[in-house]
TrEMBL record:
Protein source organism: Micromonospora chersina
Classification via InterPro entries: Alpha-L-AF_C (IPR010720), ASD1_cat (IPR055235), GH (IPR017853), Glyco_hydro_b (IPR013780)
Ranges where the Alpha-L-arabinofuranosidase C-terminal domain occurs: 291-493
Gene3D superfamilies linked to this entry: Glycosidases, Golgi alpha-mannosidase II
Keywords: Carbohydrate metabolism, Glycosidase, Hydrolase
Polar residues bias locations: 460-479
GO BP: any one term: L-arabinose metabolic process
EC numbers, comma separated: 3.2.1.55
Protein name: non-reducing end alpha-L-arabinofuranosidase
Pfam families per the UniProt record, alphabetical: Alpha-L-AF_C (PF06964), ASD1_dom (PF22848)
Record GO terms (molecular function): alpha-L-arabinofuranosidase activity
Disordered: region residues: 455-482
Amino acid sequence: MPNAQLTIDPTFTIGAADRRLFGSFVEHMGRCVYGGIYEPGHPDADPRGFRRDVLELTRELGVSVVRYPGGNFVSGYRWEDGVGPVGDRPRRLDLAWKTVETNAFGLDEFMTWAVEAGVEPMMAVNLGTRGVQEACDLLEYANHPGGTQLSDLRRKHGAEDPYGVRLWCLGNELDGPWQVGHKTADEYGRLAAETARAMKMIDPSISLVACGSSNRRMPTFAAWEATVLEHTYEHVDYISAHTYYDPSDGDRASILASAVDMDNFIREVVATADHVAAKQRQKRKLKISFDEWNVWYESRLQADLDRRGWVEAPALIEDDFTAVDAVVVGDLLITLLRHADRVGVACQAQLANVIAPIRTRTGGPAWRQSIFHPFALTARHARGTVLRTEPVGPTYETKRYGEVPVLDTVAVHDEETGELAVFAVNRGPNELPVDLDLRGLPGLRAVEHVTLAAGADPAATNTEAEPTRVTPRQLTTPTPDGGRCSVALPACSWNLLRFAPQS
Ligand code: AHR
């Protein structure tokens, strides 16, 4: 079989690799907050109860934006329950996850944690059981400098300066019948438009995200986006997209091709948004906020929920990710980068314990799951301008997505330093030789080839006992000769190839 071919040219630009593509998500769900980022009494907790080990891993992960507080949770949440003296905060039933919410952690704690973690907060307002007024109240509390009841309440609670939250989600997954306060597209579209208009009266500098579909398989997908955008286009900056890929059926060939589905999903949401823009003669192009994405063994969720009554912070969907799952996550990041012109925000769901790159034991250590590694390396090295690559190579057949390419790639070029990062996934079960043509970027030398290969032990996971079983390793990289070189991508692997100008 001939080698796969990959040509990289700095003139084939897509857009800037926005830092906001490396977002994450903290929901009041399972042990993401309680026992995850926040655990007073833990030996490594700071005086505010923030786990230092998790803070450190969050920084190492390179997370830029963190969406909060949900997720399904937000659709029944009263934000004011989570501010003020902790002893006065009410215990409530959280209907989304059949959990008792203590409200020990709330808005002010999250904002303090976000500063400590070095991340930008992205807030969601409740448009399930609540409406325009409560969203405005929350925004006034968070962003208004002072001199009003709610902004002064924030100051009384210790935050003299406004939080200046720039990104706001108008509800969560309201197309889903599981959502508390589920709505039709018209009901939601009207409410989102009115909420957006009012919120921008309070703070015109904010950016707003309207809810798109919960996933591409929803029967209302695309019609939902079209109707919602008919109502909201002129008032919002993003339409959301969510997707999770479930490897539970063991169909490895298909799960490795999940990025093909994400790619089509993005194209379809863009087409729908552009259709509405054309109808309404809107000049401004809307972007996607891909604010929930990941691999998720979702079929196990119901069993988790059925197994218990109303309890505090139960272990929920604490999936152990395999080496194959890490390759899939790396490929989903490649896809998000490839659409950097139209995807402006992306949040991997979630940050700690709940389908997360960071796992903890309550009272015990924290460790990196397999999926931590491609995220951290991509966030660190995807700097500059995303370049379009059109790899030519073999294909294979999948049950879920038909015939798909074995090789998936994207490149990011940093014009300031001259560095080039090539991200490549070999979805196939055999090593894949690739001929690289870098003649458009003369004078590059190889820096490193990092690989996370799942071929030898696809089901390997990182656990408390063996936290480094799935870890990237270094391969030797050839320096291009006359702008050309060949690399071998290990079987079923995610790869980062770095090049820099010859000194
Ligand atoms: O991330 C877990 C859940 O998945 C979120 O709460 C919800 O928005 C989505 O369905």
